[in-house]
Every structure is written in structure tokens, then in C-alpha cells.
Write a structure and sequence with these properties.
Blueprint: H1 2-27, H2 43-57, H3 61-73, H4 106-118, H5 125-139, H6 160-166, H7 174-183, H8 188-194, E1 202-204, H9 222-231, E2 244-246, H10 258-264, H11 271-278, H12 283-291, H13 293-308
Antiparallel strand pairs: 1-2
Helix pairs in contact: 2-4, 2-5, 3-5, 8-13, 10-12, 11-12, 12-13
Length: 330
């Protein structure tokens, strides 16, 4: 009888091990390519279609998707905490001064609604942030980034109190920015490339007048400084007014290497732009990217991949929000 019972005991023990392994594996899952291939096969196609449609209606949405990725991932995790509005005990990160000028959050709902119609409660808002940035970059004539992994889950809260510390300020030093990116596992070369996103950005006058008044920053090209003063005629601009200058006047809606050419000519808007072109840690990369758009695109793609994989929630962590603006009701 003992011999007859042995196979059943071994089988039961083996099944228990499989269950334990399954629990452990699910709770510690990793991002992967084409995560939704079975649960929502058209997920990435739907996001791409929505990004394209929104771009042709509202061109600046593509820039917003890129900025969303940065602001979401540098604050703790790529977990869509940025998208949460103030409600249900959550204080939105969008209230921070570091989020000044961010817009188009309402169009995230358009993308999410299309996904919910196809596959309810399946695709995370965090993956929408990552994939919309990828597809937005293409709309801005930037590189096609094929290796964006998915499988992120959404946070159940926001990190408003951490935003001021973790999102770089307009006058932060280069050393501070390099240190922040290094803490996320992003090397100097990739950091220099990611700052090339400024090619399609703009800076509000409230964040650059300190370089123009009461005296012009001597590191600025004099003619360019006069142009900036025309864009920002007051040392005390109304923070609620839409007064700004684009980082790149030549190709303002194209992710290209013009940003590096500009900062080498002392035509950067922020202090960090000037430091990036002159600091020995970064200047060689700036010069190489200014000379070779293909090299810039290659390193920019690598930087976006690294950024998008920053400390994601996976497996049974977090949740899949039904509406990206709010945590799910319990």
C-alpha cells in the first residue's frame, strides 16, 4: 500500500510547488515585448491609431505624450501616477509647479476609451503612457522605437510630495540632472540624448527671464538674446499667460539634432543647455549628436527605452485602472 500511495504524494507535492512558483512568478513578473498578444492583440495598434488621429486634430498632443513619459517615469515609477486627478483621497501630481504648462491629459481618456471598448480592464494606463510616447515620437519625425516592452501596471496613488524633488527644475545644474538620471540607471550618453527632446519643447517666459533681466546672461548669443527679449518683454511675466519661446525655431515640431546645433551656438533657452554643450562630461556627445542625426536618433531611442523601464509595477502590483484619471473603486 505504501508503494501505491507514493506516486500520489509526489504528484501532490509537485502540484504544490507549481502553485507556489506560479504565485511567485506572477508577483514578480517582468516587462516583455507584446505583453497583450493574447489578452488584447490589437492593443498597440489601437494606441497607434489614436495617437495618429489625435495628432492630425491636435498636433501638440504628440509633444505631450513625450513629456508625459518623462514626468511619469522620473517620479518613482512608470506607473501612470501622473495621470491621476485630485479625487478619492489622491492629490494630483499635476498640481505641482513642475507640471506647469503640461496639457492634453484629457486626450489620454480618448485612447483609454478605445482600449476599454476592445478589451475592458486589460491595458494599463502606464502602458498607454509608454506606447503613446513611442508613437508620438514617430509623428514628430523622430526614430521608430521598436523595443518598447509592456506589462506595466498602474499605481494606486500619486507622489505629489516627491515631484518637486525628482522632476528637474528649469534652473537645476547639469550635475544634479546627471545624478538623477544615473539613479534611474540611465548613463550620461543616453541622458544627453533624452535632453534632445527639448528639440520639440517650449519654455515659458517665467522660466527663462532670469537669463534676460536685469542683464542678459553673457553665455547667450547676443542676437538670440534680443529675440528672446521680444518673446518675453517683461522681467515679471504673468504666469497664467501663454508667453513662451520654442527651444528650436528651425524645426520646432521635429525630433532632430537641431537642438544640439543650437546649444553649441549658445542658443539654448535654459542654463542646463549651455552647461550641456560646455561640460567635458557631455560636450563630446553634444558635438557628435549635432554632427550626426542618425547617431542622435540611435541614442535617443536607447534613452527612451531605459526611461520607460524605470521601476515599473508588474505582476500583481498596483492595478489596471478603468479610467486613467482615478484609482479604481474598491
Amino acid at each position: 500500500m505504501a508503494n501505491a500511495k507514493m506516486p500520489f504524494c509526489l504528484l501532490a507535492f509537485f502540484c504544490l510547488l507549481l502553485q507556489l512558483f506560479s504565485i511567485f512568478h506572477i508577483g514578480n513578473a517582468e516587462l516583455e515585448m507584446n505583453y497583450y498578444r493574447e489578452s488584447c492583440p490589437r492593443a498597440e495598434e489601437i494606441i497607434r491609431q489614436q495617437v495618429e488621429t489625435l495628432y492630425y486634430k491636435h498636433g501638440n498632443t504628440a509633444v505631450s505624450w513625450l513629456r508625459n513619459l518623462f514626468h511619469d517615469c522620473v517620479v518613482k515609477s512608470c506607473d501612470a501616477s501622473l495621470l491621476l486627478e485630485t479625487a478619492r483621497g489622491v492629490e494630483s501630481e499635476q498640481k505641482s509647479t513642475r507640471s506647469f504648462g503640461m496639457r492634453n491629459f484629457k486626450y489620454v481618456k480618448v485612447i483609454k476609451d478605445a482600449l476599454e471598448k476592445e478589451c475592458p480592464s486589460t491595458v494599463s494606463c502606464a502602458d498607454i503612457v509608454a506606447l503613446s510616447a513611442r508613437d508620438g515620437i514617430v509623428m514628430l519625425k523622430g526614430p521608430k522605437i521598436d523595443m518598447i516592452k509592456t506589462g506595466r501596471r498602474d499605481s494606486r496613488g500619486s507622489y505629489l510630495s516627491d515631484v518637486e524633488t525628482l522632476v528637474p527644475n528649469h534652473n537645476d545644474s547639469l550635475s544634479s540632472v546627471l545624478s538623477n538620471f544615473n539613479s534611474m540607471g540611465i548613463d550620461v550618453e543616453a541622458t544627453v540624448a533624452l535632453l534632445g527632446a527639448h528639440s520639440v519643447g517650449r519654455v515659458h517666459c517665467v522660466n527663462l527671464v532670469h537669463r534676460l533681466y536685469p542683464t542678459i546672461d553673457p553665455t547667450l548669443d547676443p542676437d538670440y538674446a534680443l529675440y528672446l527679449k521680444n518673446r518675453c518683454p517683461s522681467p515679471n511675466p504673468d504666469p497664467n499667460a501663454v508667453l513662451y519661446s520654442r527651444n528650436d525655431r528651425e524645426t520646432p515640431m521635429v525630433v532632430d539634432n537641431m537642438y544640439y546645433k543650437n546649444i553649441m551656438a549658445h542658443k539654448g533657452l535654459l542654463v542646463i543647455d549651455d552647461e550641456l554643450a560646455s561640460d567635458p562630461r557631455t560636450a563630446p556627445f553634444v558635438a557628435k549628436m549635432a554632427a550626426d542625426n542618425g547617431y542622435f536618433h540611435e541614442q535617443f531611442s536607447r534613452g527612451v527605452r531605459l526611461l520607460s523601464e524605470t521601476n515599473p509595477l508588474t505582476g500583481d502590483q498596483g492595478e489596471i485602472r478603468k479610467d486613467c484619471r482615478y484609482v479604481n473603486s474598491k
